[in-house]
Structures are given as C-alpha cells and as structure tokens.
Amino acid sequence: MTARPLRLGINIDHVATIRNARGGRHPDPVRAARMAAAAGADGITAHLREDRRHISDGDIDRLMAEISLPLNLEMAATEEMLAIALRHRPHAACIVPERREERTTEGGLDAAGQFDHLAPMIRQLSAAGIRVSLFIEPAIIQLDAAKALGAPVVELHTGRYCETDGAVQAAELERIRAAAAHAEAAGLECHAGHGLSFETVAPVAAIPTVVELNIGHFLIGEAIFGGLDGAIRRMRSLMDEARGSRARSA
Ligand code: PXP
C-alpha cells in the first residue's frame, strides 16, 4: 500500500515573537510564510492569542490576503476568536486551550470537560465552511469527545513525547500511535504537533494515519543557524524518509 501523503504545516508564530521584541516590522511572519511555501510547506499555521503576544490581527489579514497556502488559524474557544475566524474564514481553525500566564500551549484541550462550551462554536465554524480541528492529548476520552462534538479533525499534542526520553518517551509515542489508530477507526482526520524537531519527527511521521504535522518553534530557532529554507527542506525530507515516500523537493 502506498503511504498516505503527510502534509507539513509551518507555524510562523515565533517570527512574530522576534519582531515584537522590538516592536517594528522586522522580521515579517508573512515573508516567512512565503518562504515556507517555496520550501515545500503545505500550509501555514498561526496562533492569534488573546494577548497578541506574537501574531497580530494585521498578520492574519495579510496571511489571508497574500498567501496562497491554506491557513490553519489556532484559536482559543472564545467569542472574540470565534468572531475573527468567522470574519476571515480560514481553511481550518484549530481550537487550543489558552491560559494567559503560560509560555506556550501547555497540554491539550479538554474536549470532554468543555463539551457544552465547544459544541456551538464547532457548529458555527463548520457551518461557515471552516475545517475544525481540536488540539487534544492523545487520550481516548478526548478523541471520543471530539467525534461526538462533530469535529472532523484532531491534532494530537506531541509535547510530552518531545520533552521526555527513554522509557517515558517510548510510552508516550505508543500513546500517540494508539490515539492515531483510534482516530482512524472513528473516522477522524489525525494531525500532530508541538515541540517536534529533527530528532523527534521521524517516529511521528512514520505513523501512517497521521496526515499532517504542524511545526514551528524548532524550525524558527534552527533558521538562525542555517536559514529557514534549509530548515524546512530538511524537516520535509526527514518526514518523507520516515514515511517511506520519496522526497518531493531537492
Ligand atoms: N500545533 C499546535 C496546536 C500548537 O499550538 C503549536 C504551538 O503553537 C504547534 C502545533 C507547533 O508547536 P511548536 O512551535 O512547538 O513546533
């Protein structure tokens, strides 16, 4: 059986983090999105946080207007973000948990615990033609909740797998594999992301039912040393190798 294609979504949030450190216009995350497209990315991911600490409303306007790759808008389940998503109608909206004091998205969305809060949002986003994904822990209870909520896509949080090593990491990878198999059986499209690097990407890319990886922080950091284009191309080829498919770009 030929391997299912594995898409690469590039998260450009941290280009904006560096820009915002000085408050000017450089470096421009939209330029990074253009480079990602040229380097073989299949989509762009951007998280418009409640406190606008990296991506701004203007960035979302420009990503929608200037970039031809599909935009995956990461958003908290708030009325403000819902209104923004409905106004822009990006290709996809990934609902993530958000706490003001956290440094990054820590842990997955509690889709089971927030069922009643999420249900009307998912209905409205879906009715607007936006593909909804829920960023969840690789846990059966969360997958079942996502299915019951009518979300077509789940994104499995790979943070714990990336942050650990040895037996704990192996167990976490097993949890991701089992969740990806459960997603497939439930008819959910399965994505994965958070913390992935050149070292950790291959085992996740090799899971045949995972069809999209969203990767940001490592690539933007790596770009300092070798450039963004080279970092994305290397990630792409590591993913293709692990998947058993031929690299698509030189
Ligand atoms: N997927 C989701 C849902 C995320 O929230 C993030 C981080 O913003 C990522 C993927 C990318 O994670 P990282 O920047 O660690 O690669």
Number of helices: 11
> Which range does the strand content fall in?
15-25%
Subunit organisation of the chains: single chain
User: What name does CATH use for the topology?
Assistant: TIM Barrel
Gyration radius, rounded: 17 Å
Overall 3D form: globular
Strand order of the main beta sheet, please? 1-2-3-4-5-6-7-8
Poorly predicted tracts of residues: none
| Helicity level | 40-55%
End-to-end Cα distance, whole Å, is: 25 Å
Protein model, in words:
The protein is α/β, with parallel strands linked by helices and 250 residues long. It has one domain: Aldolase class I (TIM Barrel). It is 48% helix and 16% strand. The protein has an 8-stranded parallel barrel, surrounded by 7 helices. The longest helix is centred in the last third of the chain and has 21 residues. The two termini are 25 Å apart. The relative contact order is 0.15.
Write a concise keyword list for the protein shown above:
alpha/beta, 250 residues, TIM Barrel, eight-stranded parallel β-barrel, 48% helix, binds pyridoxine-5'-phosphate
Short description, anyone?
Helix content is 48%, strand content 16%. It has helices at 13-22, 29-38, 57-66, 79-88, 115-127, 140-149, 159-163, 166-186, 201-205, 217-226, 228-243, and strands at 7-11, 43-47, 71-75, 92-95, 131-136, 153-157, 189-193, 210-215.
Fold topology:
Blueprint: E1 7-11, H1 13-22, H2 29-38, E2 43-47, H3 57-66, E3 71-75, H4 79-88, E4 92-95, H5 115-127, E5 131-136, H6 140-149, E6 153-157, H7 159-163, H8 166-186, E7 189-193, H9 201-205, E8 210-215, H10 217-226, H11 228-243
Parallel strand pairs: 1-2, 1-8, 2-3, 3-4, 4-5, 5-6, 6-7, 7-8
This protein binds pyridoxine-5'-phosphate (PXP).
